[in-house]
Amino acid sequence: MQLVETLINGCLLGGLYGLIGLGLSINFGTMRVVHLAHGDLIVLAAYFLVVVLVPAGIPPLAAAAIVVPVMFGVGFALQHLIVQHSLGRQLDRALGRGVLPPLIVTFGVSIVLQNVLLHYATADARTLQSSLASSGVTLGGVAIPTVRLVDFAVGLGSLGLLLLGLGRTALGRALRATSDDLDTARLVGIDPRRMYGVAAGISAATGGVAGVLLAATSTFYPSTGSEVLLVAFEVVVVGGLGSLVGTFLGGLLLASAQLLGAHFLGPSYGQLTAHAVVLAILVFRPQGLLPRTAP
Amino acid sequence: MTARAAAAPGRLRAAIAAALVILLVACPAWGSDGTRATLIVFAYHAGLAQMWNLLAGYAGLVTFGQQLFIGLGGYTLAVGAERLGLGVWPSFALAAVVAGGLAVPVGALTFRLKGGYFAVGSWLVSEVFRLAVGNSAYLGHASGMFIRPARSVEPWTVYYLAVGLLVAMVALVVVTLRSRAGLALMAIRDAEDAAAGLGVHVWRLKLLVFVVSAAGTGLVAALITVQTPFIQPNAAFSIQWSAAASFMAVVGGLGTVEGPLIGAAVYVVLQDQLGATGEVHLIVLGAISVIVMLVAPRGIAGLVRDRLGWTLFPVARRPPQAAAGSTTGPRAA
What we know:
Distance between the termini of chain A: 38 Å
Mean pLDDT of chain A: 91
Shape of chain A: globular
Number of strands of chain B: 2
Number of helices of chain A: 13
Oligomer: heterodimer
CATH architecture of chain A: Orthogonal Bundle
Number of domains of chain A: 1
Structural class of chain B: mainly alpha
């Protein structure tokens, strides 16, 4: 019974993990950049919610509705002001040997964000105080914290929205075209810079949603950004590069591994178990669960 | 293809290098204890950056996982000297063996990931070791362990070791890059598929460089641990090591031998001015590396080379016609 309970909780938390990975996946899918500040953007959103909006008297749900568009703007601006300029070579020559500049630049942004948070918001643990965090429901004899149900529902909902948006809208088609063939996309009048900005904005907006959920689900610190980035990376690698559905499933697997490890081996082994599962997948199934199917 | 980028006369270059080495060796005659401490910090940072540059600047392996080898080297020294009683110096040598040895399976695994995913993948492996060490009672859990036998090591011994290590690393990098393997490495960095097509054993050569870099980083770690003499998993396996290494290589000049040395000097000065652990220091470091990457991606050494046409360690190669002074031939800096 306890095993079932742990597994169900793992899958539910996995909704949040999957969402964390989706942002990284969108960024990489469109511009082939592993955005190393993605975890810090998520934590930035969580701080914005808990340190700025909620103390200002805005109810959590309304505050969450503010965080997401603001994070879209942050992602868009960051892309245009900074990250874009590290891609110059890549834009000029479709796919050049440009992995180093964007990595160094996004890593630098990550360090700056993390330490700016540390400087202004201190190293104190934070969390979103809400009725959600303490309540629970019992389904068929299995106790589940409500917040994890919300994590899963919102994560799954975001995945659905992204798939619809990428698959069925003109903007989604333009994004996929930019990803598939930069030069041909340009020929039909798509501006790759604009597409990259939009993709970075969407990625950061999913990060905004993830940040709200993170704040409601657990405590966080400025340094949580690095942990979140590693989660995003693991989820993407487990899921298979280039597949949003795979990324989401990777989230479920990773969170389940973490909770099972914590349950059977002790709390300090949760993360270690999750990491070990990722390395094992890298050895035995390096292409991941669902390699390159969806956009 | 043996023509070298000959800008400054070879003799002048050798004289400058020799003068620097003599100045460092004669430090007890002119420097204070403070100078010694600063130079030790400079030397091990320069060594760390040199090893990172070997991967990112020459082999195209951008990594944020070098702290793995800092941790492995440091803990090898700690276990050898404190737990097994092997003595400080045998443990010191062992640090290179363990770090280099473990780099083989780690490289075999992480090389399955490309580009940015490789960079984060090696960070992940380092996290696994950090968590595992933190869970080990033998290694003192997260609170770490003291290395008592290292307390009797003289500060000047540490100094000569640090300087010797740095000189050896620079020499190793220069000799490697001037060899056939160096040419193959730069071919891999610039066009991996084309290099493979010309018969370069890409995977094997990359692994070799990864192992050499790991062993060198392990020695740097052992040196730091002898000096401290204390080790803790969260500090030893900290991402800050990779942050520092990439900062120094980028600011100094990627893919140059003098770059990491210049970068380490900048790093040590900034650390001195802004405080070693403060977040302001890290904000400045992060911002500088972003700005340098966007504005002058070849770093300080690259600027000097472009403006003055001068380099201390000429390891770059130019096609014969460019070296002969032709203005129409393609130039490869």
